[in-house]
Amino acid sequence: MDVDHELPAADDISEGVEASAARQGVPADGSELQKVTAERDTLLDRLARAQAEFDNARKRAAREQQDYRDYAQSDTIKALLPIMDSFERALRGDSSANEKPQNSEFRNGIELIYKQLQDALLKLGVQPIPAKGEPFDPRVHEAIEMVDTSDAEDHQVLEELQRGYKLKDRLLRPAMVKVARNPRF
Fold first, then answer.
1. Residue 102 phi/psi, 5° resolution?
2. Is residue 108 part of a domain?
3. What is this structure's pTM?
4. Rounded CA gap, 136 and 158, in Å?
5. Number of structural domains in the chain
6. Which of 19, 28, 118, 180 is surrounded by the fewest CB atoms within 10 Å?
């Protein structure tokens, strides 16, 4: 609840101090007035600082709550990533040339479920990390093997063994990759 209080101007306070001093029979000399004015200025400064600290604390709490909401789902998503891996392996391993109609329907069903899971994760902010053909980046790639080859540039990702994922800007799991190493003669 916002309550606006207007603080009295310095002149109003000075006049009030002088009037009060005159009523009490105390001489209103400049030193007393300066003392009260200095005390008032100190209190106003402390009030302004306290309000600024409160405002900063409120903003920090709101930011922390938003971060918590954004990343609270990361543990749940990490639990789903092995399921994504299993779907990918199943779809890679079941690519026989002479499929029976029943196997084709089964494969289509698996592909549909896999696509639905991908779409659900994408809506939550999960993004796959690009790997194959990219330069090796140790922040998002985990090198499992270095392969001596002259067919690719040095430190280029040759193969993705396991897909990596990010949740918004936070790394959930690095991509496991094979990296090219140019032999030096």
1. -65, -40
2. yes
3. 0.60
4. 9
5. 3
6. 19
17 close to 33: Cβ distance less than 8 angstroms: yes
CB 14: neighbour CB atoms within 10 A?
A: 17
Residues 117 and 153 in one domain: no
**Encoded tokens for 92:** 């890679």
CA distances to 25, 138, 162, 182 from 147, in Å:
97, 16, 17, 8
**Structural domain span for residue 86:** 73-124
Alpha helices in the chain (DSSP H): 10-24, 30-71, 74-93, 101-123
In a domain, 2, yes or no: no
The dihedral formed by the CA atoms of 118, 145, 181 and 156, expressed in degrees to the nearest 10:
10
Q: Which residues pair with 143 in a beta bridge?
A: 177
pLDDT for 44-89, tens place per residue?
Answer: 999 999 999 999 999 999 999 988 887 788 888 998 999 999 998 8
User: Quick check: is 1 in a domain?
Assistant: no
Of the candidates 153, 162, 161, 160, the residue with the CA atom closest to the CA atom of residue 180: 153
